[in-house]
Specification:
Length: 349
C-alpha cells in the first residue's frame, strides 16, 4: 500500500469508532490504485481504536490526542503532518468502492484546473439512495449535500461543477489550504467545510463532482443519531460563525430575507424535535462571536486572491438554486408538497 512518493495522503479523523474504522480500512486495502498512504488522527478514543490499528493495520500512521479536539483540529494535524500533493479526507464511517481512488487519480489528470473534488456518497444501508453528490450552500449560511435521500439517477452519474465538497469525503489539492487556509478550529465540528468551501470559492478555487468516485456512508455514526443535542447546538452556533466570518455587510443586507427565513425554519425544526435547550445554548455561544469572527472576516475580505464580490454572490445564488431544486425533487418523490419552497423560489431565487 505504501509508495515512496504517494499521490494522495488519506486522512481519517477518529473518535471511538473502532467498529466502523475496521471496515473503512479494509475497503482501502482493496483499492485498484496503490499510490496513497493512510493517516488516522485519533481524538482521544476510549475504545480499542488505536490497538486495532496497531495490531491489524500496521501500515497506517497514527497521530494521537489525549482528548477530543474536534474534527477541524484533527484534520488540520493530518494535513500538516503529511506531504502528498493531494489529500483525501474521509470520515471513519465510510466504505470506499474498490476503484474509487483510481477514478480520483483520473480526475486529477483530467481536470487540472480544479483544486478540490467531491465524491459520490451513497447510503451505506440503501445503496440506491444518495447521501450526497457535491455540496451546495444556502444564503442562510449552511450547506446542503445535493441529492441527499434521492434515488441515484442519470443526472448524478455525470461529472459536473460543484460549489464545494463535503469534508467527510473530499479530495483537496494541498495548494488549496495554502491559499484559503486550513479548517477553522473554532468550529470544532459541523459546518467547518461550509466555511472552507466559501473561503476557497472566494479565492477563485474550483470544485468538481466526480460521479465515478463512490463511497458508502453510514452517517452521524460518531455523534449518534442525526437529531440530538450536539449537532443542534454546534450547527446553531456555527451557522452564525459562517455568516459573520464570510459575509460582508452588503452581502448580509442583501441576503437578510433568506437568512431570516432559514433561521425561522431552524427554530421551528429544533423545537419540534424537542431540542430547544441545545438550540438556545448554541445561540448563547454565538452571541460571544461577533468581535473575534469579525476580525477573521477582515482577513478574508482583504485576501489578495479574491474574486469580485459580485461574482461570489452569484456563485452562492446558483448554489442555493441547485440545493432548493434538489430538496424539492426529494420531497416530490416522497409524495410531499413544495408550496413553501415554491414561494421561496419565486421570491428569492
Amino acid at each position: 500500500m505504501f509508495v515512496n512518493e504517494p499521490l494522495i495522503d488519506i486522512i481519517i479523523p477518529n473518535w471511538n469508532g473502532a467498529d466502523m474504522l475496521a471496515d473503512c480500512l479494509l475497503s482501502l486495502d482493496k483499492q485498484t490504485f496503490s499510490g496513497f498512504r493512510i493517516t488516522v488522527v485519533d481524538n482521544g478514543s476510549e475504545d480499542n481504536s488505536v490497538a486495532l490499528i496497531e495490531n491489524d493495520f500496521p501500515q497506517v500512521k497514527i497521530l494521537r490526542f489525549n482528548e477530543n479536539k474536534g474534527f477541524s483540529v484533527a484534520v488540520n494535524l493530518g494535513i500538516s503532518s503529511t506531504t502528498a500533493p493531494w489529500l483525501l479526507l474521509l470520515n471513519n464511517d465510510m466504505e470506499i468502492a474498490p476503484d474509487c481512488l483510481e477514478h480520483l487519480q483520473n480526475a486529477i489528470e483530467r481536470y487540472q484546473e480544479y483544486h478540490f473534488f467531491s465524491l459520490k456518497m451513497l447510503n451505506f444501508h440503501q445503496r440506491d439512495l444518495l447521501d450526497g453528490a457535491g455540496d451546495a450552500v444556502l444564503k442562510g449560511g449552511v450547506g446542503y449535500r445535493i441529492g441527499t435521500m434521492e434515488k441515484d439517477s442519470e443526472y448524478y452519474s455525470r461529472d459536473r461543477d460543484s460549489f464545494g465538497a463535503c469534508a467527510g469525503a473530499g479530495l483537496y489539492k494541498r495548494e488549496l489550504f495554502k491559499t484559503a487556509g486550513l479548517f477553522d478550529p473554532d468550529f470544532f465540528a459541523y459546518l467547518e467545510d461550509v466555511d472552507l468551501n466559501m473561503r476557497a470559492r472566494r479565492c477563485g478555487l474550483k470544485c468538481r463532482y466526480i460521479a465515478s468516485a463512490v463511497v458508502y456512508h453510514i452517517g452521524s455514526a460518531t455523534s449518534g443519531s442525526k437529531i440530538n443535542g450536539l449537532p443542534i447546538r454546534l450547527s446553531t452556533r456555527n451557522n452564525f460563525r459562517v455568516l459573520i466570518k464570510n459575509y460582508s455587510l452588503l452581502m448580509f443586507i442583501r441576503f437578510l430575507p433568506s437568512i431570516v427565513v432559514y433561521q425561522l425554519m431552524w427554530v421551528l425544526f429544533s423545537f419540534k424535535k424537542k431540542m430547544a435547550g441545545p438550540y438556545c445554548r448554541g445561540l448563547l455561544e454565538a452571541a460571544r462571536d461577533p468581535i473575534p469572527f469579525s476580525r477573521k472576516r477582515g482577513i478574508i475580505l482583504n485576501h489578495q486572491d479574491n474574486i469580485p464580490e459580485s461574482e461570489f454572490v452569484k456563485l452562492i445564488g446558483e448554489a442555493e438554486k441547485e440545493a432548493v431544486n434538489s430538496i424539492m425533487a426529494r420531497r416530490t418523490a416522497a409524495g410531499k408538497t413544495n408550496f413553501l419552497l415554491n414561494c421561496y423560489s419565486r421570491l428569492f431565487l
